[in-house]
Amino acid sequence: MAEFTWPVRVYYEDTDAGGVVYYANYLKFFERARTEFLRALGFEQDELLAREGILFVVRSVQADYRRPARFNDLLTVSCEVTEVKRASLAFSQQVRRGDTVLCEAAVRIACLDARSFRPRPIPPTLIQRIIDG
């Protein structure tokens, strides 16, 4: 499973009083990359909700903040699927400025039934596309 990358520009609204990216905004950058990853595979989350009745939610995140990003930086946000289970996916994600890793995270996403919010198997077509890349 190949690494997927997505460019992100740091806007003023992403920064804190110290002029660096506020720590929680890295989670937003990771979310955007995962959404674009699914889109690149041909899956829109609103269509998965309407057609399959499923939602993807963050179950856990472990983040390591290494260096600050600042206003107007052009960043690359990556995601790579590291584990596929029946009803969850594990991702390794990074935010980089050039070759410098600023933040990295291990993120587990759960697939839930939209009505009951109980775990539900990931559609086989999606799993196959993830595996095939």
TrEMBL record:
One of its GO terms (molecular function) is fatty acyl-CoA hydrolase activity. SUPFAM superfamilies: Thioesterase/thiol ester dehydrase-isomerase. It comes from the Bacteria. Pfam families: 4HBT. Keywords: Hydrolase. Gene3D superfamilies: Hotdog Thioesterase. Residues 18-103 form the Thioesterase domain. Coiled coil: none annotated. Belongs to the 4-hydroxybenzoyl-CoA thioesterase family. PANTHER family: 4-HYDROXYBENZOYL-COA THIOESTERASE FAMILY MEMBER, ACYL-COA THIOESTER HYDROLASE YBGC. This is Acyl-CoA thioester hydrolase.
